[in-house]
Amino acid sequence: MPKTTDVPHELREFNKVFEDIAYRHGWGDVFVDFVDYSIACFLNTGDPKTADYLEKKYADRYSRFRQLFAEWIKAQERMIFGDKAWYDTLGIFYELIASSSKASHLGQFFTPPALVDMLTLITGGEEGAGRHISDPCSGSGRMLISFHAHYPGNYCFAGDIDPICTKMTALNMMLHDCEGQAVCMNSLDPDDWRFGYAINPWIRQTRGLPHIARIEKEQCRQWRGFQQDKEKYAQRKAEVAAAQKEALTAVKPEPVMGKFGQLSFL
After folding, report:
1. Which of 114, 118, 125, 164 minimizes the C-alpha distance to 141?
2. Beta strands in 117-188, from DSSP E residues, in sequence order
3. Packing angle between helix 27-42 and helix 89-98, nearest 10 degrees?
4. Which of 89, 93, 126, 229 is 20 to 30 A from 80 via CA?
5. At what angle do helices 163-175 and 89-98 cross, to 10 degrees?
6. Distance CA 177, CA 225 (A)
7. Distance between CA 254 and CA 265 in Å, rounded?
8. Nearest Cα residue to 150 out of 113, 180, 111, 121
9. CA 170, CA 199: separation in Å to the nearest integer?
């Protein structure tokens, strides 16, 4: 467990509630379960299975998840000020416990916020451009929520092979009013699909109410684009093979005089 002095001031209350739950269940497990709990809270369909599982697993401590959820939202509200501000409570807390031997299976560290903003400004963008912005290795989603804070009105796509990172990204994008998708897949091979979420797909109809919806791979923009690219490649490959075959059959060998005077086509 991290030392209290290592926990940012704005996360002290969150940490206090987290400690109370993790005392018996382990920091890494509680963090993963809290992220699943939060996803279930914002899913448009809900997730009764996850709720039942967590209620049985934590028994009398299950009600503390509601308090932890409230402290998470409070921390976000305290730290987001101004039009270009963003804050990654989940990613920061993840990093705090990742170095703990009790949570070594988490084991990732993300790009520092100041560097994220610098990279966003170097990349540049345009507000309300409706462009497709993609991060194929999203981590906790910092690059995309930073880009959205500076250049809102674009469609954000996040891909990551780590399930917990995908879920953190989905929650971060949702709370920061991003519109897009967060998908768990191998970005080098989109056919290696795990699961995915649409982020705030009906935010205009819900008047800004944040929400998440599950999607299948056929609904994933990147997966569909990959399939189209594969079809184009296969078609082009077939065209090239046909052209080569036609060129070979069009070449007619000319007769030449062989060594002993007979005609030869060699």
Report:
1. 164
2. 132-135, 155-160, 179-186
3. 160
4. 126
5. 150
6. 25
7. 6
8. 121
9. 7
Q: Which amino acid is at 181?
A: Q
Task: With H, G, I as helix, E, B as strand and everything else as coil, classify residue 145.
Answer: helix
Which residue, chain included where needed, has tokens 């409070």? 74
Q: Is 207 left (phi over 0), alpha (psi -120 to 50) or beta?
A: left
Task: Report mean pLDDT in 10-residue bins for the chain, 266 residues.
Answer: 76 94 90 96 93 93 95 94 91 86 66 94 89 94 96 95 96 96 93 95 90 95 87 90 84 59 51
Nearest to 65 by CA among 18, 26, 27: 18
Burial 223-250 (b: 16+ CB within 10 A, else e): beebeeeeeeeeeeeeeeeeeeeeeeee
Buried b (16+ CB within 10 A) or exposed e, 163-199: ebbbbbbbbbbbbbebbbbbbbbebeebeebeebbbb
